[in-house]
Design brief:
6 helices
Amino acid sequence: MTQTQINVDNRARQSLGSSSDPIYQMVARTVAQRHSGGGVLVDVGCGKGKLWPFVRDRFDRYIGVDAVRYPDFPPQIEFLAFDLDIGKAPLPEGFADVVCAVETIEHLENPRAFIRELVRLTKPGGLVIVTTPNQLSLLSKLTFILKNQFNAFQEAPGLYPAHITALLEIDIFRIFTECKITEIQIQYSNYGRIPFTPWHWPENLGFRGRAFSDNILCVGKPKTLS
């Protein structure tokens, strides 16, 4: 194994291969709203495959793609090992009805190249779904003011250097537009930690949207194959 491969492996494993349930639920809501059902889902940066239970009823086939296969990745579902920072995944153009990248883009060196690859994998009129930490939440803004670092990119276990690319929602929107993705929407997890506490904002009391969400989602339809 080369030093580059070792670094990729280490960074991937520092992420622990999973996200929180509210993020998967946000993806599931988006799929339910904008995908009629059936077809192929490619989960790019799939980690331990924890998205699958949230969306399995809406697809005929699931394929996970990641730099490493985690030991507890479900053995019954398909997996492709691939360094997402390098080249193209071993799948043909227009392969998937939906391509998801859940909490993956912040781990990569070139977000534009990554989105172009997601578009390449998606059928025209399919869906590209990307989630990432929300740099515009109250928690992230306060952390930036006090520490000169975004909350999800601090030098702490599971954060930097696993997280290396911080994007604002306008950055993701622009990249989607540059990649000829249309019908773009930004959505919020409605799950965010209250600054300086271990507790989360109570959604049922109206704490929703950008300021109170630790994560955002961008979704759109590729216009043509890249």
